[in-house]
Amino acid sequence: MKLRSKIMVAGASALALARTPRLATRAVRISAVPLLLAGMLGGVAGAVPAVAARTGSPRPATSVPLNRYLYGVAATSAANAWAVGCTTTSDVCSKTLIEHWDGTTWKQVPSPNPGSDLDALYGVAATSATNAWAVGCDNVCADTLILHWDGTAWKQVPSPSRPGPSGLSGVAATSASNAWAIGTINNGAPLTLHWDGTSWKQVPNPAARGAAFYGVAAASATNAWVAGDTSSDTSFFLHWDGTVWKQVPSAKPAANYTNFLAGVTVTSATNAWAVGHTTYGDFHYTLIESWNGTAWTRMPSPSPGDQSLLTAVAATSATNAWAVGQTAINDGVATLILHWDGTAWTRVPSPSPDSENSLADVTAISATNAWAVGTGYTSGASAHYKTLILGWNGTAWK
């Protein structure tokens, strides 16, 4: 079974948004959130993954609720955090969605929708209350979409022109003059863009055509990482040293297993983490790799059951890191959160308010302040998908 299956709906050819593990050994399907724009398929861009395949009654045809999804989160202080995603009344993203935390409540903030339809945001990064970036694609992924927050409003910023459809799936920033965005061009070429304080420019990278980028992180202007895999499902990293991107091997999978990387974070030249899942046939287990300044090695990680995956990771120091994802439970899907205390990764209790819950991203600014976002599914007469936001206060996730 090949895990790089793509989400498709009827329509014109466009960029697919997620690799979705399809679990033959469960009635449910654990779905990775759209961590990348992976290639051209016979489907509409912006296809929204179900948190899990449902086996009960179909959604009533007379009800058309607004579905809301969150795919990225970033924070700079206890009173400044951003979450991004999309809204839709169908099975594809229609409008961009941006929510802001002001220290008291989460509120939706107006965001541009430059395309005629099918606009979506998949990543966000912030360095201050007046500098944040959100990336995705617009108009059926006809082009990359880059938005900037200047402290007053979100505005679209031009991105380098490229032939054919393209989209962005992640962004990282360390200052007002240093940011990276990753994505895919319609010919299957992995895309890396850099912000120098004036404009976004495309920067060459050594990844081969057909490779997919799943996560990006930066600690400084001379230290950034991208996690991804090749068209033959071999995971790898790219590292930026201030001059060029170079490919770095990931930890080797165990015999007969295949490793998939979904997210990466970095705090220094000798401390970085990457997460995803490792698979053996129809079984999927959490995967965590650690960078010590020399090589990436796999670390032991809790994996409840045999259908678990991690989608994102965030760290503030060598003794504080979070990884989030999801795991199958009975006929549903529950949130999954793991914590690193400098010695070991342990599972931490996390709310799963709906029958199907998925965490897409996590951010942390201290040992007592972190956020995780994703999507939940509410069943019943008004069945719909809704945003899921969890906050860490130093004691518990709520």
Oligomeric state as shown: single chain
Low-pLDDT runs: 1-46, 49-61
- SS elements, strand count: 29
Per CATH, the architecture is: 6 Propeller
Briefly note the structural class of the backbone. mainly beta
Describe the protein.
Strand 17 and strand 18 form a beta hairpin. The strands form eight sheets. The chain has a four-stranded antiparallel beta sheet with strand order 3-4-5-6, with no helix packed on it. It has one domain: Neuraminidase (6 Propeller). The protein is mostly beta strands and 398 residues long. It is built from no helices and 29 strands. The model is unreliable at 1-46 and 49-61 (pLDDT under 50). Helix content is 0%, strand content 54%. It is globular and about 45 Å long.
What is the structure about, briefly put?
With 398 residues, the protein is mainly β.
